[in-house]
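ok so i was messing around last nite and threw this chain in just to see what happens. nothing serious, just curious
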Amino acid sequence: MSLFVGILLACAAGLAGTLLCPDNKGSRSRLPLLAALLIGGLSWHAPARAGEILRGPAQVIDAGTLRLGARQVSLFGIAAPEADATCSDAQDRPYPCGRDAARALAERIGGAAVACEPRGGANTALCRVGEADLGAWMVAQGLALPDRDVAPDYAPAADRAWGRRLGLWSGVFQDPAERRGRRAAAALGAAG
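result:
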């Protein structure tokens, strides 16, 4: 949406500036046109702002991350297993819980358009298919854990998934938020 708005603004401002601001030589000034194009370009590259809703087809990157067009967003309020995460089932057999959770999210979305409203951090968004909150759905299926500080409304669904032993709760897994924190710390240690 911001690309379309940026193009329209750039065209309107450039046309108005070129018509209204001639230079001393009698020809039209190109400065307003260049300024309008710059502003339009900046509006296209600007990150999503609160209240701006990103809409369109989504590509599932992992169980907690989507790409809509050129933007990558993390689902608000959840910690989901990374793509390479492995968990154990009730019989202590390993399985690719990260891939399984990502596949379930992709199946839930199907070919539907996704609408994401930025929340919290710069690349975090509350994403929906129709009226269904994808983060809440992931938690209810036991495929992600709620961030109880950020999204306390997801806690009852997580408790029900735990009680029914759905998804991750059917066996043993490492908390995705802890795993992500350990990887970030290891990366900082290696860089320093």
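not much to say yet. The CA atoms of residues 26 and 190 lie 62 Å apart.
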